[in-house]
Amino acid sequence: MKNLIIITLFIAIAGLITLNSKPLDSMPKSTVNPVKESKPTEVVSVAKSLYKDLNLEGILKFDVFEKAYNGYVYLKPQFRNSDIITVIDFSLPSTSKRMYVIDITQKKLLYHTIVSHGKNSGELYATNFSNRHGSLQSSLGFFMTENTYQGSNGYSLVLNGLEKNINDQAKARAVVIHGADYCNQRVIQNLGRLGRSYGCPALPRDLNAPIINTIKNGTMLFIYAEDKGYLASSKVLNSIEPTMLAQGAEVDDLHQQAAVMD
Questions:
Q1: Which pLDDT does position 123 carry in this prediction?
Q2: Closest to 138 in 3D by CA, of 148, 146, 126
Q3: Are residues 188 and 195 in contact, defined by beta-carbon separation less than 8 angstroms?
């Protein structure tokens, strides 16, 4: 009798379970919203962030600043003073302020002035460039500033060209930064352009000493122009992947590459 009762109860419980069970496809669908795939955030380069902090928009073209900054990062171990960079944009006419002295650490534009190009580089625009002795042309690319001296053009700053076959003869050619009477607004008013040098980036007399004293002894100078030959042959510019310089990215590999660059 006891066994019969247990069997009856078991059958009743099994029946209740069967009645309350439903197939999976009849179960109500979850009301929880599916997880949406998040879009990747835009990668902001260090150069772009710094450009904004410096308020350079409308003053210095971003693509020129970006090339200068990326090259600065690539070559940084060579510079004894890495706080200051100088950019000269020869894609602009000589009537424009095309020299920029920038304090990277303090995020300040220290000087923004006119600068002369070489006599045989062009008239209003500099369009021809050379690394040859006696060419009387400007050289493009990355330089490191060195010592100062008093010469025939007064207080002057030695430049060491860092790009082989592009500007590495600058020191031997005596391509230096110096002051010049032909580099001033009065000449622009009279000629419609600045006077020209023998290849040196010449400055207004009143700004020559303060600028030289700011950038001397191991800072970077980048002289740019929209020159296909330079852009194609520069090992500095062509060794840099822009994505490698995204914010937070490591640049040790770039430094190692620069240390062994020809």
A1: 98
A2: 126
A3: no
What pTM value is reported for the model? 0.79
pLDDT per residue as tens digits for the range 240-256: 765 455 544 444 444 44
Alpha helices in the chain (DSSP H): 2-20, 46-53, 62-75, 185-191, 205-215, 228-233, 235-238, 252-259
The Cα-based distances of 172 to 21, 138, 158, 167 in angstroms read 93, 14, 10, 10
| DSSP secondary structure letter of residue 163 | S
Strands 99-103 and 84-89: antiparallel
Helix (H, G, I), strand (E, B) or coil at 190: helix
Are residues 165 and 151 in contact, defined by beta-carbon separation less than 8 angstroms? no
Residues 6+ apart with CB under 8 A from 53: 107
42: Cα separation from own chain's centroid? 18
Q: Where are the beta strands (DSSP E) in 114-140?
A: none
Single-letter residue type at 8: T
Tell me the C-alpha distance between 211 and 142, whole Å: 18
User: Residues 205-234: pLDDT tens digits?
Assistant: 999 999 999 999 999 999 999 999 999 999
Helix (H) or strand (E) holding 178: strand 176-179
CB 69 within 8 A of CB 220: no
How far apart are the C-alpha atoms of 211 and 201, rounded to whole Å? 12
What's 46-259's CATH class?
Answer: mainly beta
